[in-house]
């Protein structure tokens, strides 16, 4: 049974391989897998026509299909303009692949979000066993948002503090995001929240170093998340790990420009922080503000524990190793409190490279809740500036140093 047909016609089934495009849209059935191209649901892909409705219809078909492992396809060589939308589960299909081969662009104007939630662009909600993959590019077209952001234009009338996250994955399990390229999100590029077992791999994320709040990947209220082989350069954290997270593995990442890999900020609302088993290894930081950072608010309670930063390389990083337990959005504006998030069992192992400031290790713990069981092992940091020496600074930081060549470690026992 073989049938081919044009994009605008009804669906056809074919039992063959071939090019998948908007000119020749079709559904392929192969074993228990159905392929659903957005072009079969009216997408045009000229970068101008609004293809949102077609994406939603293709999703409905994919989600509700009888096939166990369907694939929704965004075909190669087309650019689809897509407004805010949510791909919702639960689905009838067991394992869905969302294959991005072409490009998906957001509207360029923030006006497209009038009367809509400004924090989201594309959201995947309540879907298990979702696989998002492909070689396509997802472009958040953020520059108009950046130009009106209150962070960089505080005196601009009508400035905005909240801008869309390009891709949100909410309430999911056993899912993954691979191979795609994400650029110029209005705010955070990828958010993982309320998920268990999520794998991210081979991701490229790019936005200008001057773009406000454009975190690469933010993880919150999630367990068992891994990120491997990512290249991230943005205007904010490459990866930030928020509250209620555990068993997070980050490895083989290149970070820069940006603010580094950050655990926090945590405890902002005086909540009981629970963050543990975070493992960050083989990260290369290039001209970032921070390297390995943990930041907590003094009003917070709870714990951050069993954290490992291993095999990190720094190339002219402002704060290669930093714990800031007195974090405040305006430095010095938060008054000293008797509370704090307890930071313990943090190991820094095999760290090398250069610092662009003199203080290469800054463990600034609270006076009331000490940092305990900190391990500094096999560390050699140098100044990025000729003729300067790097130093370390510790406040109420307790633990052991083994084989730290430079700077002199300042931990208390
Ligand atoms: C996309 O365009 C490239 C270059 O023009 C071409 O080689 C490729 O076959 C096209 N792919 C499809 C699916 O049409
Ligand atoms: C953002 O502002 C810059 C500087 O004023 C300007 O050159 C650029 O065109 C603006 N971008 C957009 C998309 O409005
Ligand atoms: C430590 O934190 C306090 C409170 O934010 C700040 O005033 C001080 O400058 C910090 N010390 C270092 C060495 O960064």
Automatic annotation (TrEMBL):
<keyword id="KW-0964">Secreted</keyword>
<feature type="active site">
    <location>
        <position position="259"/>
    </location>
</feature>
<dbReference type="InterPro" id="IPR000743">
    <property type="entry name" value="Glyco_hydro_28"/>
</dbReference>
<keyword id="KW-0134">Cell wall</keyword>
<dbReference type="InterPro" id="IPR011050">
    <property type="entry name" value="Pectin_lyase_fold/virulence"/>
</dbReference>
<feature type="transmembrane region" description="Helical">
    <location>
        <begin position="12"/>
        <end position="31"/>
    </location>
</feature>
<keyword id="KW-0472">Membrane</keyword>
<dbReference type="InterPro" id="IPR012334">
    <property type="entry name" value="Pectin_lyas_fold"/>
</dbReference>
<dbReference type="InterPro" id="IPR006626">
    <property type="entry name" value="PbH1"/>
</dbReference>
<dbReference type="Pfam" id="PF00295">
    <property type="entry name" value="Glyco_hydro_28"/>
</dbReference>
<keyword id="KW-0732">Signal</keyword>
<keyword id="KW-0961">Cell wall biogenesis/degradation</keyword>
<keyword id="KW-0326">Glycosidase</keyword>
<keyword id="KW-0812">Transmembrane</keyword>
<dbReference type="GO" id="GO:0071555">
    <property type="term" value="P:cell wall organization"/>
</dbReference>
<comment type="similarity">
    <text>Belongs to the glycosyl hydrolase 28 family.</text>
</comment>
<keyword id="KW-1133">Transmembrane helix</keyword>
<protein>
    <recommendedName>
        <fullName>endo-polygalacturonase</fullName>
        <ecNumber>3.2.1.15</ecNumber>
    </recommendedName>
</protein>
<keyword id="KW-0677">Repeat</keyword>
<keyword id="KW-0378">Hydrolase</keyword>
<dbReference type="GO" id="GO:0004650">
    <property type="term" value="F:polygalacturonase activity"/>
</dbReference>
